[in-house]
Structure to design on (140 residues):
């Protein structure tokens, strides 16, 4: 699903960001709440734990780029949990856009159009798969 070039771009850009900006996930939530303040109440006041979960989820996704089908069941389950707390499908677009913006800002000159496209493809896969899980949960 992901080419070797996309895989390399995603992994190398994430490693570079985390090496210089380990607080990237926390920065993401700051940006998210500025961009979409209506989402703020869905999160605890202190987003440290949530930021750790986001980083861990991204690490798992990056480790399975060669076999993204292994992520389908866990992402369906995550989408189902998100549906239970009121996450709407449209929020995934906002989250993806803010995450891309955060990564781009923190990667600096390392962020290229190709890197952005690779990350966009990954986040689209994650979002669509989680939305599928949410829809199954709502239908059940």
């Amino acid at each position: 699903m992901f080419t070797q070039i996309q895989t390399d771009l995603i992994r190398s850009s994430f490693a570079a960001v985390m090496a210089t900006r380990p607080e990237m996930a926390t920065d993401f939530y700051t940006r998210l709440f500025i961009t979409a303040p209506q989402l703020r109440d869905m999160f605890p006041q202190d987003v440290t734990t949530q930021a750790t979960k986001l980083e861990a989820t991204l690490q798992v996704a990056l480790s399975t780029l060669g076999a993204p089908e292994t992520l389908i069941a866990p992402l369906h389950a995550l989408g189902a949990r998100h549906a239970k707390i009121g996450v709407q499908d449209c929020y995934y677009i906002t989250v993806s856009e803010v995450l891309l913006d955060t990564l781009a800002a923190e990667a600096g000159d390392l962020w290229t159009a190709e890197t952005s496209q690779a990350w966009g493809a990954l986040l689209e896969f994650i979002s669509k798969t989680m939305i599928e899980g949410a829809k199954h949960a709502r239908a059940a």
